[in-house]
């Protein structure tokens, strides 16, 4: 029986630590035996983990820009991001493009996506998305508050969008070996609510601080809602559902959508 503080004798704090352990390389001590049900429940904190990552990356950029020009500071910050996450989502992005670009049937696409080798489609897609991130953040770095808020929004809201897809699509069962398999059971209303509240709290906080306007917040929300619909249509057309790699690709696309939206609003 689930209540507000404990799920199968595991506290919400422990579920947050599990979410951190799943999405990052940050060492945490989990003092319980992790089950698939626990990992599914921990997904409610994925947007919050994104906020934590955004805070660490924003802090690192703030320090680097005291010593180096913006271009070098952004590259160093991006490198730290890859180290903190183990390039978890970037790997999914590359695998999706390899699979969707190199396979004709669903089974072929899934087989290619499981292959640990990086293909031409994946390599090109990875290069392009990293370059877009760099160029967008470099443009936004003309204002320190703009680039720091972009980092926070990009890391938090993108993970909210990616995780929310679990509620709207079926998991592709052939991808049974994926690390994301335990998340595929469902996304509860409570988990979705926490994801949305985390994103909303960040947007509200930036509005209250005068860093972004409420109009900008609405535009970003509308862009992400439209992107979410496009992602659902794309994944269903390609696979009939989603895999863990699809969620990684969704996070990456959502992140650059946020950066490009902020660039267009300046």
TrEMBL record:
Protein's pathway: Cofactor biosynthesis; adenosylcobalamin biosynthesis; adenosylcobalamin from cob(II)yrinate a,c-diamide: step 7/7
Pfam families linked to this entry: CobS (PF02654)
Enzyme Commission number: 2.7.8.26
Membrane topology: Multi-pass membrane protein
Transmembrane segments: 6-24, 45-64, 70-88, 118-140, 146-166, 187-212, 218-235
Top-rank lineage group of the source organism: Bacteria
Statement: the UniProt record of this protein carries the keyword Ribosomal protein: no
Annotated GO MF terms: adenosylcobinamide-GDP ribazoletransferase activity
Protein localization: Cell membrane
Cofactor: Mg(2+)
Reaction catalysis annotation: alpha-ribazole + adenosylcob(III)inamide-GDP = adenosylcob(III)alamin + GMP + H(+); alpha-ribazole 5'-phosphate + adenosylcob(III)inamide-GDP = adenosylcob(III)alamin 5'-phosphate + GMP + H(+)
Keywords of this entry: Cell membrane, Cobalamin biosynthesis, Magnesium, Membrane, Transferase, Transmembrane, Transmembrane helix
Function: Joins adenosylcobinamide-GDP and alpha-ribazole to generate adenosylcobalamin (Ado-cobalamin). Also synthesizes adenosylcobalamin 5'-phosphate from adenosylcobinamide-GDP and alpha-ribazole 5'-phosphate.
Similarity section: Belongs to the CobS family.
Descriptive protein name: Adenosylcobinamide-GDP ribazoletransferase
Gene that specifies this protein: cobS
């Amino acid at each position: 029986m689930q209540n507000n503080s404990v799920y199968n004798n595991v506290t919400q704090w422990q579920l947050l630590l599990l979410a951190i352990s799943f999405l990052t390389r940050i060492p945490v001590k989990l003092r319980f035996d992790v089950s698939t049900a626990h990992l599914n429940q921990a997904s409610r904190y994925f947007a919050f983990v994104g906020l934590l990552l955004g805070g660490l990356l924003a802090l690192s950029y703030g320090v680097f820009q005291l010593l180096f020009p913006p271009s070098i500071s952004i590259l160093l910050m991006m490198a730290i991001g890859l180290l903190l996450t183990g390039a978890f989502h970037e790997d999914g992005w590359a695998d999706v493009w390899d699979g969707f670009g190199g396979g004709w049937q669903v089974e072929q696409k899934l087989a290619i996506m499981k292959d640990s080798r990086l293909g031409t489609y994946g390599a090109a897609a990875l290069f392009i998305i990293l370059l877009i991130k760099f160029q967008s953040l470099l443009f936004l770095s003309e204002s320190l508050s703009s680039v720091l808020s972009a980092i926070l929004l990009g890391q938090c809201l993108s993970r909210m969008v990616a995780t929310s897809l679990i509620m709207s699509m079926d998991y592709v069962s052939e991808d049974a070996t994926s690390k994301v398999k335990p998340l595929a059971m469902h996304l509860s209303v409570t988990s979705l609510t926490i994801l949305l509240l985390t994103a909303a709290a960040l947007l509200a906080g930036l509005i209250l601080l005068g860093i972004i306007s409420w109009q900008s917040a609405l535009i970003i929300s509308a862009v992400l809602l439209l992107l979410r619909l496009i992602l659902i249509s794309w994944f269903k057309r390609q696979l009939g559902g989603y895999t863990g790699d699809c969620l990684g690709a969704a996070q990456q696309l959502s992140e650059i959508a946020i950066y490009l939206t902020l660039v267009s609003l300046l």
